Amino acid sequence: MRHVTGRARRAGAALAAVLTWAGLLAGAAGCTGDHGRAGLDRVLDKPPAAEDVIHVTPRDGARDVRPGTALRVWVPAGRLASVRVVTSQDAQEKEVEGRISADGLSWRPHDTRLALAARYTVDAVAVDGDGRRSARHTTFTTFVPEKRFIGYVSPENRATVGTGMIVSLAFNREIDDRAAVERAVQVTAEPAVEVRPHWFGDARLDFRPQRYWRPGTRVTVALRLRDVEGAPGVYGIQHKTFSFTVGRHQVSLVDAARHTMEVRRDGELLTTVPITAGAPGTTTYNGKMVVTEMLELTRMNGATVGFKKADGKGEYDIPDVPHAMRLTASGTFLHGNYWAPASVFGRTNVSHGCVGLRDIKGGGADTPAGWFFDRSLIGDVIEVVNSNDKQVAYDNGLGGWNMSWREWTAGSALE
Questions:
Q1: Would you give the end-to-end CA distance of the chain in angstroms?
Q2: The predicted structure's pLDDT at residue 243
């Protein structure tokens, strides 16, 4: 039997160890891609890279991410311990709400649509089966649109208005996806009452209840138009909430044939005012009209509303019309009149379509026009009857009260 020296035994053991180590390395190298690295990491007891443990979409550093892209954080094994997502938009930071799934493998936001023109930051921590923790930090930015739309809203924030006020949004661009825009606008009332929308064309959206508002109602308008795609490539920019209060109930009835206006508040007759309405060739519209603007003095030029002489100048040009209250977008006003003889009020219709009340130059507080102006609010209703003219168009000013509730609700894009 051959004798083996101690030196040889030691050399053999060292060679066996080298071969075993090489075999392990070869086994790890025999795998490909991430599995190969993971196998080597296991051999070396080295934790895997965070990007191999925690996956985030959109990818880290992505730019111009579209709003429909899914935001997701997930792990193939183990569990997510925490996920915090913050968006920075218009120099304001906001945490994105979301939740980790029951199995701990994924996180998704509650609102799946990404904000536009925003920077997102994702910080996630995961724990594997051996209790090792991994943390990952990623960022991406979203698409910045070139075209935006806004809605010009009336009434104003914190205003006190009459019971006939209609919430009206006039958009600066035509809206193709009216349903999406309508869903992004909410009008609520306290005490609660059903408020419904109606579209007038593609650039105006109005809201009202079935009947006039109850006095004392607080109405809140929430615009969630930011990043809503109203037309291809055109996104909303507004995200705000405002409120207004409904004051007392006042409705005035103008009888063009009798040349009078009955002013009623909360159902009680306050007074009957003599008026002059539109002359035979320039009659006043019939129907319910809402005061949308109140001006102590304003200029009225006939050329701006189609009343022109042969030389192109206006049939009238009065630089200081007192106590003027706009009733229609086309130029119908209820206003003070100091240039007509006092004898016409209550007897003759001489105006170009407006309703005139007796007044003095500069506006008098004690005249019929001054008295009515001081007791009026934007949102009050003026109804004209017995005029030899058609009914005011529904979209000429806030003419929506002339529609039945069925007609009004049929104008929703979501019906």
A1: 101
A2: 97
Category of 173 on φ-ψ map: left (φ > 0), alpha (ψ -120 to 50) or beta: beta
Share of the chain above pLDDT 90, in %: 78
Per-residue pLDDT tens for 288-320? 999 999 999 998 887 777 777 777 777 778 899
- Cα 191 to Cα 34, 150, 354, 415: the distances in Å are 62, 29, 36, 25
Q: How far is the C-alpha of 174 from the C-alpha of 290, rounded, in Å?
A: 25
Distance CA 275, CA 254 (A): 8
Give me 193's structure tokens: 């009452």
For residue 379, give both structure tokens.
């949102």
CA distances (Å), origin 304, targets 212, 293, 296, 308, 402? 32, 17, 20, 9, 26
Cα 269 to Cα 249, 251, 336, 382, distances in angstroms: 12, 10, 21, 14
SS3 236: strand
Question: Distance between CA 257 and CA 272 in Å, rounded?
Answer: 14
Listed in sequence order, the residues at least 6 apart from 92 whose beta carbon sits closer than 8 Å to its beta carbon are: none
Q: Does the pLDDT of residue 237 top 70, yes or no?
A: yes
pLDDT of residue 45: 58
pLDDT for 18 equals 40
Cβ proximity of 402 and 288 under 8 Å:
yes
Per-residue confidence (pLDDT) for residue 158, from 0 to 100: 94
Does residue 14 have a pLDDT over 70?
no
DSSP letters of 48-104?
PPHHHH-EEESPTT--SB-TTSPPEEE-SSSEEEEEEEEEEETTEEEEPPEEE-TTS
Dihedrals phi, psi of 43, to nearest 5 degrees: -60, -40
What is the per-residue pLDDT across 133-187, written as a single tens digit (0 to 9) for each? 999 999 999 999 999 999 999 999 999 999 999 999 999 999 999 999 999 999 9
**Average pLDDT, whole number, for the chain?**
89
Work out the burial of residue 266: count CB atoms within 10 Å of its CB; fewer than 13 is exposed, 13-18 middle, 19 or more buried.
exposed
Three-class SS state of 105: coil
